[in-house]
Amino acid sequence: MTIHRRDYYEVLGVERDADAAVIKKAYRKKALEFHPDRNPDDPEAEERFKEASEAYQVLSDPQKRAVYDRYGHEGLAGRGYRGFDDVGDIFDIFGDLFGSFFGGGVRRGAGRAHRGDDLRAEVVLTYSEALEGVTKQIRIERVELCSRCRGTGAEPGRPPVTCPTCGGRGRVIHQTGFMRLETTCSTCRGAGKIIEEPCGVCEGSGYNRVKPRLEVEIPAGIDDGQRIRLSGEGDDGSRPGYRGDLYVVVYLEPHPIFRRDGRNLLLDLELTYPQLVLGARIEVPTLEEPVSLDIGAGTQPGAVFKVRKAGFPHVGRSRRGDLLVTVGVGVPRKLTPEQKRLLRDFGDTLDKD
Ligand SMILES: [Zn+2]
Ligand SMILES: [Zn+2]
Predict the structure, then answer these.
(1) Distance, CA 116 to ligand 1 centroid (Å)?
(2) Helix, strand or coil for residue 185?
(3) What are the pLDDT digits (tens) for 228-242?
(4) Is 177 left (phi over 0), alpha (psi -120 to 50) or beta?
């Protein structure tokens, strides 16, 4: 609750002598503007929504309005009026009003809105895709509010009716002697409404399992195990706009010759003994075009050569890491007699040194 309260007329932007119709219209406008469905994860909008709802609750009620006009906020507080702590309470009280301008789907009296579950999906990328970024199509399975009944669970044209047991309160009072016990109505399970004819698509649950295809934009530089959050692509919650999120976890397919270490790309390259001894200009593969690399004479096995900017960028940055080429010496398993002779002669010269 806000400590400093604004004047209710000011909140709704109406004159002090505004009539009920004007107040209702003003509130609808504010409620539409700051509705949580339109402003997900926006605490300021939620505060505004609560404030407008509070103002409307007071000004639309002649008694509360009279108290407010004479005694202000303190007067209402002194009579036990308190505002809204939870947006869910607002839906419970003004559900009808929202239902009519958000196209229904609001579960009245069914308690607070709850958010749908977060979901997880996986994509596997090649090194090249991770280097350049890619848009991937994925197919997920999620729970969505039924589009036929808009989540009410009732067959269209046969809206839920007020629960006959509790008269729509959702709670029943048992009076035994001095004891007064209030419990949740068992007929409607607290919803205050019951469905006479269940929706033919969702069979009354209000939800369906669907398998939508989604496009996931994967940024350049993404690494194995990193995840992308797709806000509002998870399961539907109890009302429209209360979807969970989808987390897409990225895996890199192992590359036949490269490995990755953060921004750097690693490559082990076998050269021949003569190449190391005499030096050579060699072609080195990268994830893009091959590059040529000068190996100096007398290079030792294990030496590391750097090809600048042939590695990965970090996500959201343009500066790229390097390709680090570690050279080794390849020992041939088979030689021709001629090669053996040459090598032996060469070996003899080394022995003399
Ligand atoms: Zn349905
Ligand atoms: Zn009931």
Answers:
(1) 17
(2) coil
(3) 999 999 999 988 889
(4) left
Task: Note the ligand closest to the C-alpha atom of 144.
Answer: 1
pTM beyond 0.70: no
Q: Residue 19 region, left (φ>0) first, then alpha (ψ -120 to 50), else beta?
A: beta
In order of their start, the domains of the chain are: 8-101 (1.10.287.110), 119-252 (2.10.230.10), 258-352 (2.60.260.20)
Q: How far is the CA of 145 from the centre of ligand 1 (A)?
A: 8
Residues with CB under 5 A from ligand 1 (ion): 146, 148-149, 199, 201-202
At residue 10, does pLDDT exceed 50? yes
Q: What is the dihedral of CA 196, 199, 200, 204, to 10 degrees?
A: -90
Please state the rounded mean pLDDT for residues 317-324: 94
Give the pairing of strands 280-284 and 291-295. Answer: antiparallel
Report the 10 Å Cβ neighbour count for 55: 26
pLDDT digits over 98-157, tens only? 543 433 333 434 456 789 999 999 999 999 999 999 999 999 999 999 999 988 889 999
Looking at the DSSP assignment, which residues form a beta bridge with residue 206?
A: none
Strand 227-230 relative to strand 246-252: parallel, antiparallel, unpaired? antiparallel
Banded model confidence at residue 353, pLDDT cuts 50, 70, 90: low
In the chain, the percentage of residues whose pLDDT exceeds 70 is 89
Neighbours of ion ligand 2 (CB under 5 A): 163, 165-166, 185, 187-188
CB 31 within 8 A of CB 57: no
